[in-house]
């Protein structure tokens, strides 16, 4: 999902993940890498602070998670492997040693896809996923096995600033959905996945072709995980049209909504989405209202078509 920066406080606390604190980290990281941070533009401030340099066609990502070093090392390795495989994905600049650490924050550098953000189409996302799922990952990448239970549990454990009744409801629902998930019979081959495959992570390159970005979630898992967001965005939230979804299904070659486990997988992924918004709820009224809306939908089963996209 695409994170936003609305209402993030700039309180000058260097231990906080604010625009002011991350701009200082940006300067130090760029100077160490031999890059000029002058005039850099903050594009997003959420799970990562994302900056676009004005001096070079480079994007700088600063991870909010202080424990993300192994994940970022893996993302850089994945990017280099995909480039060697001639797969259209986000590239890392050559000659820059990374990831780097500044004040316990993990920083990575990426080639800018183009000067303005332009998303590709669902058909192109399907093409990229189909091609990605045919690749056989080399052992040196050390990709982890995707553990959705651990990922959701960690997210809920770290969820601060919400009402106790909301936390209890999410934990109870996670237990219920988790049991149903363990009974799923996956039908697609197990293997390499992107981990957060959605329209927000496929951009139009300046030369016209579509590229896959945000490579830090690569893992080994049932391929259904790479199809679930597109199906949910169409089916539950109305963020994609029927024609767009049909194109996606046709070009990938499989309709996840016809699989008996679709609803359970969608419920599981939805909990991850709601928890993510919950983590942002204290940063702005917009996120707080969205979290309240989503919690109401989980309790009543209604109103999902009013959810906002980030």
From TrEMBL:
Matching entries from SUPFAM superfamilies are given as: Protein kinase-like (PK-like)
User: InterPro entries of this UniProt entry?
Assistant: AGP_Transferase (IPR051678), Aminoglycoside_PTrfase (IPR002575), Kinase-like_dom_sf (IPR011009)
Aminoglycoside phosphotransferase domain location: 47-263
Question: Sorted alphabetically, which Pfam families does this protein's record hold?
Answer: APH
* Source organism, top-level taxon: Bacteria
Report the protein name in the record.
Phosphotransferase
Species whose genome carries this gene: Streptomyces ardesiacus
